[in-house]
Amino acid sequence: MLKSEDKQIDARQLRILLTLIEECSVTRTAEILNQSQPYVSLVLKRLRELVGDPLLVRSGAKLVPTERARSMVEPIRAVLAGIEQVVSPARTFVPAEASGTFHIASADCMEAFFLPRLIAQMRTAAPGIRLTIRSIEQGYDYAAALERGELDAVIGNWPSPPQNLKTVHLMADDIVCLMGEQHPLAAAQSLSMARYLEVEHLAPVPMSSADPGPIDGRLAELGLKRDIRVMVPEFNLVPYVLLSSDLVFTSSRHFAQHYSAFLPIRTIDAPAEFGKMRFYLLWHERAHAAPENNWLRNQIIGVARALATRPAAVL
């Protein structure tokens, strides 16, 4: 009886067995696999002992596989294919020939000026790819979704990005105030912090109490708080609320320029104390080396670089 340590079998022995079953010849198997006939016979002998079956039997002048051997053909092929997949070099990603789906989560403020450009660019470069985009709404754990493989990338704006994910800075944008043309401050060029705190504000619903967003987060750092009268769940509602109210909304210049191009929305500079709004790309270590994820990241970075090098008004 074979001991447990004698029951091991390697890929080379499996390939010899598969070739023996297919060729029904020790001589041809040795020639095909560039092995000696004695070694092939030795492997066959050992495998017969291992599985308790003759595997190949004489039928006149030739060998024929037993029923047990025939039943082993597909499992052996599957095992060898799996081993080949494991040890093969990393696959290349050819965008023009690729299929599959990318999953991206994005901050709402990027829906107007960033995501349409990204979608257009990806549709041109990889027409067979599908793209699913979702917003980062309140309570959504995008870090866990990245870890589980439910997301491929996250695009957002944070004063400082999470430290437990792979990160690259995409772009920095001016912070401005948006208001309808009927607003009393619509003719101004900029707002001081004192005047900013006097007006009534429209704001997005915060992600959580721990993440109030880049605007209120910066105000908290300064020991200040603005007068928020209305909160909305989606940035797409913002311009239409501004058109019929005396509220002020604070966001990035690219977001503001998008809507002021076709709606009577005024844009003025926010208080200088806000600095810049910074946008980041996040992904998980598990996908860092994947060719397709690397390509996706480069597409996102390319769109950000194009936006950063041209004035917002041109876009």
TrEMBL record:
The keyword Transcription applies. It comes from the Bacteria. Gene3D superfamilies: Periplasmic binding protein-like II, Winged helix-like DNA-binding domain superfamily/Winged helix DNA-binding domain. Keywords: DNA-binding, Nodulation, Transcription, Transcription regulation. PROSITE patterns: HTH_LYSR. One of its GO terms (molecular function) is DNA binding. InterPro entries: LysR-type_TF (IPR050389), LysR_HTH_N (IPR000847), LysR_subst-bd (IPR005119), WH-like_DNA-bd_sf (IPR036388), WH_DNA-bd_sf (IPR036390). Residues 9-66 form the HTH lysR-type domain. Belongs to the LysR transcriptional regulatory family. PANTHER family: HTH-TYPE TRANSCRIPTIONAL REGULATOR LEUO-RELATED, TRANSCRIPTIONAL REGULATORY PROTEIN. This is DNA-binding transcriptional LysR family regulator. The lineage of its organism: Bacteria, Pseudomonadati, Pseudomonadota, Alphaproteobacteria, Hyphomicrobiales.
